[in-house]
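The instructor's notes for this session suggest beginning with a concrete chain rather than abstract definitions. Hand out the sequence below and ask the class to guess, before any prediction is shown, which regions might be ordered.
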Amino acid sequence: MVGILQADIFTNKTALITGAASGIGRGLALHAAKLQMNVVLMDLNADGLNETHSLMTECPSMIIHCDVSNLEDFSKAKEKIASEFGTVHFLFNNAGIFLEGRAWKADQKNWQRIIDVNLMSVIYGLNLFVDEMVASQERCHIINTSSMAGIIVGPALAPYTTTKHAVVGLTRTLHEDLADNDKVGVSVLCPGLVQTNIIERDHLGLDLDESSIDQHESAKNNAQWLADGVKEGMAPEDLATIVFKKIENNEFWILTHPEFIEVYETYANEIAANKNNLN
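After discussion, reveal the predicted structure:
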C-alpha cells in the first residue's frame, strides 16, 4: 500500500489485544500503553489480565474477560469496546494455545479446540472489526499472531503447525484483499522462542483432553524442547518493540528470529528445486 505511513499513528488510537493476560499479549499491551493508546485487554484469565493492567503505564484502558473462540462472547465484547472507545484501530489477534502430537494421533476434541482458539478466533476478529476499520477511513492495522511454526515444519507438532500455517494463509489473503486500501495495513507475526506460558497445561482456556495427547517420544521431546526454549526466549517487551516498528513501516512479515528464517530458506529451496521435476 502506497502512502499509508503517517506521523504518530498510535497515540489516542484504540488497540484490542487478545491473549493479553501473559506473554506476547502482555508485551504488546505494555508497549501500547507507553504510546498512550486506548488499550483493550482481552483474555479468559482474569487474574492475568489484572496483572497485565497493573504493569501498564497509565492510559485509557479496559479489561474484558472473554473467550475469543466463542463468536457470541466475542461479539458481546465488541459492543463493550464500541461503547467505550468506538472504532478499534489496531487489532491484535494474538490468543493461542499449544498442542503437540503426530498428525494422526490428536483426537477430534483436541483438534477442534486448537482450531477454535488458534484459527477461528482470528477469523471472528476479522468478521467483527475489519468492515468498521475500512469504513472509518482512519489509519488502522490488523496483526495476526502465527509462529515460525506457520512457515516451517517439524515432526510431532501437527495440531499447532496446522493452525499456525492456516493463520499465515489467512493473513496473506487478507493482505491481498486490502491491497488497494491505503488506510488499513496487515501483518502476520511469526516469532520464534519467546518467554510465554504457552506450553503450560494448567492455564485457563486450554480445555484439552489430557488423556488423548500423543505420548510418543517424538511428541514429548518436541514439547520439552519448546518448554526449555521459551524459558530463555526473547522478552515479550523486546518483541513488542519490533512489532510496533514493523506496523509503523507497514510491513507484512514480522519475523523476529533469524535462525528460524534460515530453516525456512531450506524448506523453500526444497520447493524451488522441485521445478526441475515438473517436466
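Then share the key points. Helices lie at 23-34, 46-55, 71-85, 108-136, 158-177, 217-231, 236-248, 258-273. The radius of gyration is 18 Å.
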